[in-house]
Fold this protein.
Amino acid sequence: MNCRRVQKNLPLYVEGDLDFRTAAKIELHLEQCGRCNWLADEYKESQTWWSSDDLPEFDDARLSAIKSDVLVQIDQAAQNRSLLAALGAYFSRRYVFALAAAILILSAAAVLYVYQQRGKVNRNDVVADAESTSDRESSSDAGDNKSGNVASSNNSEGAPKRRDRSQIGGSIHRSRTLKPSIDRGVDEQRSLNATSFETVPAPSLHTSSRRDPNVLRIEIQTSDPKIRIIWFAPKETDSHQSKPATD
Amino acid sequence: MSGEVAEIALMTDNLRLCEESANSPSRTLLIDRAKAGDSSAYEELIDCYQRKVLSTSWRILRNREDAYDATQEVFLRVHKYIGGFRTDQDFAAWLYRIVVNVCRDQLRKRGGARRFESFETEQDAGRLDALASNEDIEANAIRSQQRAMIAEALDTLSSKERAALVLRDLEGLSTEEVARALGSSQTTVRTQISSARAKIKQYRDRVLKTATRTRR
């Protein structure tokens, strides 16, 4: 055992707090090492110095007074025991904590349940609202078709009397909005349904029918609800056909 | 006359009971009676342990008034929690635990302010007036100074180290008993004791060095 380890264990060694084997090793080291031996003596002196302190004299009258004070306070506490204190006497602190934890968990579960129920109701409301808006949109589209200068951008294939895509032009202006504010998520779909566009004649590439399987139509809604980018492009299946022959 | 005899007999009974081990059948019976709410049993329990509690409190707190307050608080807490005490537990260890907790609360309340008793404090309290001669007064002054130094040395320790050291070195409990009383592991207690002894030695070395310099 080296000096460092011995010196670390000396505070415990001097009062016999170490196990037999460690104590024997330290003893062996102390016989050989003068500095550690001197340090051990210092520790012993320090221990003697501080633990030799005797108790002061205590006042017996004061002790009796403390005893009677304690008994009086206990009697008073017993007389003034409230309902809560009586419960506390029957239930130990552990039970009280367990009960409190159980109540807390149940309350949290109840709050979570109520919150989830409210979420479901809101979702149902939104879906119902979207459906009713879509219906209204369909009926208004039918009316617009009669005027002849406005095309609906509704993508549903089954929309009645839809204008031909050949009349959709390059610059688009919003002419009518059923709902002024457009939200994200479910509302975005609703806004798509609720918006119609004023059109100018489209370039020749896009003049083919909307149902043309060779034309890819991509719609991008920008952050500004009034601006929507509609991009028509030939499908990839056509690209190799349009490629000029190398021969 | 017969009343005095009865009182003396009761005191002797109490002393005999206090000398018995904490887990003896009669002591267990006494604790059971106290748990059941028997006030006379609780009174006997106070008689048995009051001095022990007071001395331990004083050794941790190093102030007589604080020790009296702590003793009172300890017995109030014992009464409050004795319902939760299991008979298979060691009552002395349980009691020591309460004493240590109460003393820790006192130390916390005291904060950084040192309240050990100096020679002047004892003189002011009139405790030295009863001494017979000047030699006695001188001896008492030296003892009082020694106590103040030990109190200062203990002030360098944390409350946990202080409690562990007092229980081990002054109360004579084994490391295992100290661990049980403090609710810690034996390894923790050994570390605390080792650190506390090293700090006490450091303090003593510092004081001795200062004293040597002053003499020169």
